[in-house]
Design goal:
About 40% of the residues lie in helices and about 15% in strands. With about 650 residues, the chain is an alpha/beta fold. β9, α11 (about 340-350) and β10 form a beta-alpha-beta unit. It is globular, with a radius of gyration of 28 Å. This is Glycosyltransferase 2-like domain-containing protein.
């Protein structure tokens, strides 16, 4: 089943892009307005799903007969800017129109927008505010209020730009070349100013925003909390916009520095409203209060405090690829028999690297675990044999050099076996680096996306016992811990078992069991929010990073964001933590993915797909596969003066 109802040869004149987040209650009105457009040229509608938790895909299926709908998942970075960039990355038309999921466009919105883009490269339209109640009425009534006072057939004029660069994100249009010339939206800017940031960068490039005459019904916020939150965010990020582009003198909100005494003026307005009783305009007071607080917060944050956030211009467009020379030797270190193609298929498709799967071995004798039964197999031998066959089939014809290492998955290993396996992995990586010293070696490792399992208090106790045990001089023997998912979660700091247990070692045995039980409890709680970080991924990444940190040669490191874990929690925070831990800087990159090719490869992993996607909603349709694969390159920290210039 596919959501993409337009064929590759059916290129529309207009692409309508809508960023969606939990929008199934309001989106049907917008889709109805788009499905009933008058005089519109051929167009497609792209719904860019930014971490929705509602039934957006079901809504897409329901509307397929009435619209050329295309669905794309864009949840790797929260916010409308990233969602719009991802939508732009798959748009087929040359003219792009943007609207929001909770508004309603006019009956001629597409035809007028397309006509304006024949006259100007970018335009911004206008809006008539509406309450939830007004937008719950039939579409004809919603349109009637838009039509009131509008002269049908009036001339379309590309007007002169305004004094302050403005784009209304829920009602604007832009030509492809103009958007890509400035890199699209900056995903570091929050909703409310990401559109004006685009206007500023367009102006700096000599492209001015015209007034296009397109109209929408705009859903205004109601309720004190919503008004305060929206106005606070707008005020704070307005200050960031001013700081980034040096627009303090042009800002209508900052001119004359009256904003500094705005809190006092808000108090005065509140007292006046209190005197009026029920007739007071409290929404206006809440809006002014939020804006005043937001401006002060922005000034303290971006002018006095930590400074501006690092730009993410173009994030989601798939245009920020790492530079990899054809002669570079690339090694993808994949923890399991599927991780490589799930997480970095495009890099593999283009570079044909060496691909090592670390935990491709099986225990002797075979065992039966919950994981084997969940995957539908009687024991570890049957499951691992099938998974190796699937991996070989998935890589057939790709051109990569595939190697399966005989190390044990976390569900099969023991503490002592894991230590031996990781040391063997380290030796293999050292040998590979030495063999490819002259080929600018590149190592691709898992970023370890997913929900983080918080550490427990027992970790501190275990470290203390490890110190005590070292004083007693205990030796090492296999721990025999069975299903040892906890092996990769820090049990190496526990005292190893010895042939003649001391009192400390007996306490360590009890502690090990208790620690594992508590870890499983914390992991279960964490996984209520989604897939937890996989301990095997962490073990592989940290082992190889340790090898590189002691290498006597230059090695490039790319951390690839893990699918499907990124659906639960993207890898940004974990990558930032690792970069800080190693005193490095993480440079973000993206590959634009051939999703049909990727899906054709992933379909070979049948033993895993039913477990990861039992409802067959994520991988059976290329549209729900992220259109970009993200990775981060770990590089030396830039000089202090360079950071200030950026």
């Amino acid at each position: 089943m596919t959501v993409d109802t337009a064929s590759e040869t059916d290129v529309p004149e207009v692409s309508v892009i809508i960023a969606c987040h939990n929008a199934t209650k309001t989106l049907p009105l917008q889709l109805e307005a788009l499905s009933r457009q008058e005089g519109a040229p051929a167009f497609e509608v792209i719904l860019s799903d930014n971490r929705s938790e509602d039934a957006l895909l079901s809504l897409v299926d329901a509307w397929r007969p009435r619209l050329k709908l295309r669905y794309v998942w864009s949840g790797q970075v929260p916010g409308a800017a990233y969602a719009r960039n991802v939508g732009m990355s798959i748009a087929r038309a040359d003219k792009w129109l943007f609207c929001d999921a909770d508004d309603a466009v006019a009956r001629d919105w597409i035809s007028r927008g397309a006509a304006v883009l024949d006259l100007a490269p970018v335009f911004s339209g206008g809006a008539v505010r509406a309450t939830d109640a007004e937008l719950s009425r039939p579409l004809e009534e919603v349109w009637a209020q838009l039509d009131a006072g509008f002269q049908a057939g009036s001339a379309l004029v590309a007007e002169a730009p305004a004094n302050w660069p403005i784009i209304m994100g829920g009602n604007f249009g832009i030509r492809r070349h103009a958007a890509l010339a400035v890199g699209g939206f900056d995903a570091a800017m929050e909703r409310g100013v990401e559109d004006n940031d685009l206007a500023c960068r367009l102006e700096q490039a000599g492209v001015f925003v015209s007034a296009g005459g397109t109209r929408i019904r705009y859903r205004k916020r109601t309720g004190a909390v919503s008004i305060l939150r929206e106005s606070f965010t707008s005020g704070k990020w307005h200050m960031a916009l001013v700081e980034r582009h040096g627009l303090a003198e042009r800002s209508p909100q900052l001119h004359g520095r009256r904003w500094m005494v705005a809190p006092l003026r808000v108090v005065g307005a509140a007292l006046k409203n209190a005197a009026k009783g029920c007739n007071g305009d409290w929404p206006a007071v809440f809006s002014r209060a939020g804006a005043a607080a937001g401006l002060w917060s922005g000034w303290l944050t971006y002018r006095v405090g930590r400074g501006l956030p690092e730009p993410l211009i173009g994030a989601g467009l798939g245009s920020r690829e790492p530079e990899l020379s054809e002669s570079a030797a690339v090694l993808v270190v994949s923890p399991h028999l599927d991780d490589a193609l799930f997480s970095c298929s495009e890099l593999i498709r283009r570079t044909r690297p060496d691909v090592w799967t670390v935990f491709a071995g099986e225990p002797e004798p075979s065992m039966t675990t919950t994981w084997d039964r969940t995957c539908g197999f009687p024991d570890s031998h049957a499951l691992m044999a099938q998974r190796r066959r699937e991996d070989c089939d998935a890589f057939e014809g790709v051109g990569a050099e595939v190697r399966h290492l005989d190390m044990l998955d976390g569900v099969y290993t023991t503490t002592s076996r894991r230590a031996v396996d990781l040391e063997r992995l380290a030796d293999d990586v050292r040998e590979w680096l030495a063999a490819h010293r002259s080929q600018a070696p590149v190592l691709v490792l898992p970023a370890c996306a997913g929900v983080t399992v918080p550490p427990g208090a027992m970790d501190r106790v275990s470290r203390l016992l490890a110190v005590l045990n070292r004083h007693e001089g205990g030796g090492t023997t296999p721990s025999g811990s069975g299903e040892a998912e906890h092996v990769a979660q820090g049990d190496a700091d526990l005292p190893p078992k010895v042939s003649e247990p001391s009192m400390v070692n007996r306490a360590a045995d009890d502690l090990r069991r208790m620690k594992h039980m508590l870890y499983q409890h914390r992991r279960a709680r964490a996984q209520r929010s989604g897939l937890a970080v996989n301990g095997d991924h962490v073990a592989v990444r940290d082992t190889v990073l340790d090898v590189v940190s002691h290498a006597d040669q230059t090695v490039r490191i790319l951390l690839a964001e893990d699918l499907p874990y990124l659906w639960s929690q993207p890898g940004d925070e974990e990558v930032a933590r690792i970069a800080d831990q190693h005193a490095l800087h993480a440079v973000p990159h993206e590959f634009h993915v051939d999703r049909d090719w990727k899906r054709s490869r992933l379909m070979h992993y049948t033993s895993q797909l039913d477990v990861m996607d039992p409802a067959h909603r994520r991988f059976d349709r290329p549209d729900s596969i992220p259109p970009v694969e993200r990775c981060w390159e770990l590089v030396a920290q830039p000089a202090e003066e360079n950071r200030r210039e950026c």
